[in-house]
């Protein structure tokens, strides 16, 4: 029988620890165990043989860290080490017929944005290992000891793209059930299942006792066979030796207890052939429980999981349709505006954020994935990737960290053929529009029929029904008196007859009518009553979110009206307090004291009587200048200076909005490219400078952190920037700063360069060819003023 | 574990300043938010060490560093510590960098103070467990102990697997709010100070 047929039907047993066994045979702490596949093959073979004789069904190859990052400077390639590792395991397995699992551990580097390893580089690193392992004859791939969902995704995509072997994934949460980058067990399960794992589970990190606590949650959500491979207890490092305390007998007893619920058991660090032999003995005759399909629908990000159902809020505001300011931001590449919209919606109870970057003059396939990556740097709300362009869809789904929601597929043949394979490959949940090549059906029954057609087509690709959210389409009630009723009737049928989740873009109902919020709120309430699982709404509209709270109270979903009371009791009091407070502040004072809302309000008032540029030049800039002087005179601290800048930012936002609505371009003082140099991932200094420069009305193009010198030069030339600012924090990365300055001076000699960062000095800055060294953020502003004066 | 305002002010670049209620309040608020989201972790190990001129032999490695040799003078054993606040601190700082830069800056300083405070606590735990006095913490990047040693020391502790700590290509710790340090152990019976 092959492994796939046995999985879930018979209890399978992995071998135990390899690294700790090698240490007992003389591997020094810190030495790479994988090198022994070649240098001490006899020892590796010996250990594999001992495990095979202990009676395990699957041997893990000694290839955990055989990646090009860890093997750099060893003189060996991943191809050599992996091939040797598979060969040793196969030789040992020859005696017992054990399966061979190609063992893949983490790269050892954290992926961006937390670390500096780019996602596609990680995919490539894993692909190299998996290609070699498959060619050498491994029977399955085991991706293990993972503690970041993004890295799991990279490894699973590599496996998908390089081989047809079954893929198993085990991860290593801490005692609270969380991965290092914040993901919980449902987040890991929905991502791993979505990407098509044959089995999933836990390994390493903890002993059997500690893992026991996490197992129920894993079993609750997993629809594929479950693996559990604990350590022999929690390790202790004493005199350079790692000590484990769980004995073979204790280990075996606990594994026998697990075996009633899980499908594969095994051992990790500190377990030995004796542990595995004991477990084989105590588990003999145990047949695992059948694997059952769980009905939970999750979407996730790296750090947050949202279960679909009961009126989840999908924020609609990151979409240019009908929003001049958003259009302007997308055209200007003003990602900061998108980020602020995202955070504002999350602050108003949005669970998921829709992201749409579709504008005719924009390269959506370039912008959408960049927006997705950028948004995932600032919010952990899961995203709904919203595009009609298959190329943009693929790139955004690929780089997304988590299990995304995709918006949307329809019943049109082309859509089904192009979109469903992407949804399947990247393990997304999806919104399905009930329209097809014949258009939008007029009746509820016909819309449900389209829904059924899509569900069947999805099933043919292996997309489960639980990952589909049916959209029965909101048409403006102003264009047809039956429009709301048909949508709601169709929703009820989808809920009652098909048992599938539903989703609606709510706001379209009121198109063309006055007082739109009233209709939206009432329609939203009716839709919730008809079973709406998730509504695409404007969370900043209090009327809409109020409707959700009132509906939940009335429907009994909000027991004792607790959430309703928390939201509304005393809600009038703070408003009175604010309106009753002192005289409204002038823009100048509001900025100097760092009061954002007052600054916005004051700017709005001034705009009624004077042109935007006068507000900027006569009020805003003088206030910021005063704050800057106070900072330079040490009368203000950095956080206070930044508060003033952010308050000025609020006023600028009011001005930008008015200019966008009038279709007028905004006059800026000059264009500046900022970057934290290659190799450097600490960008707080650069962000401080950016905040100040933007609020002094300079146009800042922020390239982020870990930026290649070539990209800086390319951007300067393309955007015709008048100034570059570079930041580097460490002695190791100022070298990259020097390279960047040199390249700039060669390719863009007319553009001055200012530099800053913890380890820099004015002398060093001069030596590497920079035009200006700034000791703090105000220095950068002053230099920019000189350059552009 | 307590975060002291004076430490935060030092990391903010204004040591000894009188912050006023606004800034003090912000420091308290950021401290509370950080405390609610971090998942500090640490791993340590103890090795015999030997000082040979301007080098230290530790964990099977010969570390060429006169500053480390001076730091470990008189110690026959050394503890290696790796600790991290986890990725949540980095996430929170990034989130506040959009539109709330003053909070990001204060949070950055509070995080720095917090990881040091945790390390103080871990150090005390180690001292108690080993029933010995420890020297201060000495990290790669101090004196002539090169940054490149971070990777080797982390490997010795298996810190990637144990606490999820990694090192970037540019030699930075990721998650950022992390520490790798060496501490000398004065054995109580050795007669050393």
Mean pLDDT of chain A: 93
What is the terminal-to-terminal distance of chain B? 28 Å
Cα end-to-end separation of chain A: 78 Å
Total DSSP helices of chain A:
32
Rounded radius of gyration of chain A (Å): 30 Å
The beta-strand count of chain B equals 8
Which word captures the global form of chain B? Answer: elongated
Low-confidence stretches of chain A: 572-581
Instruction: Classify the beta-strand content of chain A into a percent band.
Output: 5-15%
Which structural class fits the helix and strand makeup of chain A?
Answer: alpha/beta
Number of strands of chain A: 25
Indicate the percent of residues in helices of chain B: 40-55%
What is the structural class of chain B? alpha+beta
Low-pLDDT runs of chain B: none
How many strands, which pairing sense, and closed or not: the largest β-sheet of chain B? Answer: 6 strands, antiparallel
User: What pattern of helices and strands is seen along the backbone of chain B?
Assistant: HHEEEHEHHEHHEEE
